[in-house]
Amino acid sequence: QVQLVESGGGLVQAGDSLRLSCTTSGGTFSTYAMGWFRRTPGKEREIVAVISTSGGNTYYADSVKGRFTISRDNTKITVYLQMNNLKLQDTAVYYCAARRQAGAGLVYTMVSQYDYWGQGTQVTVSS
User: Fold this and answer.
1) How far is CA 59 from CA 15, 37, 55, in A?
2) 86 HSE (CA, 13 A, CB side)
3) CA dihedral in degrees (27, 28, 34, 36; nearest 10)?
4) Between vectors from CA 49 to CA 45 and to CA 52, what angle results, nearest 5°?
5) Rounded (5°) CA angle 103-64-78
6) What is the pLDDT of residue 97?
7) What are phi and psi of 48, to 5 degrees?
8) Could you read off the pLDDT of 42-59 as tens digits, one per residue?
9) In this model, does residue 103 exceed pLDDT 90?
10) What is the pLDDT of residue 17?
11) HEC assignment per residue over 74-122
């Protein structure tokens, strides 16, 4: 059973940066495509960024393009989300997700495509 643990959330001001980390256990990290999703009260969980097993392919939500960067270190079994120039609307609980990659270079953009989820970490951006 794969377990995911997020860290790095917190309270910041608009324009600040944060880096989220998600460390895995119980599986072969290098075979899992990874993703970051977020949820705000009253809304469905939405994609933020996803990355293929090698890190060669990524996908970003339009709302975070140019500000957020997803990366992974397979030797540290960790995926990161570097968030720069944070905005009020980035306030959410951020979740890390994993699934086995079915084909080389694939990324998965839908919540339903992921099998494993972390507990989430709160990011709050204030003015």
Assistant:
1) 23, 12, 11
2) 23
3) 40
4) 120
5) 50
6) 98
7) -115, -60
8) 999 999 999 999 999 999
9) no
10) 98
11) CCCCEEEEEECCCCHHHCEEEEEEEEECCCCCCCCCCHHHCCEECCCEE
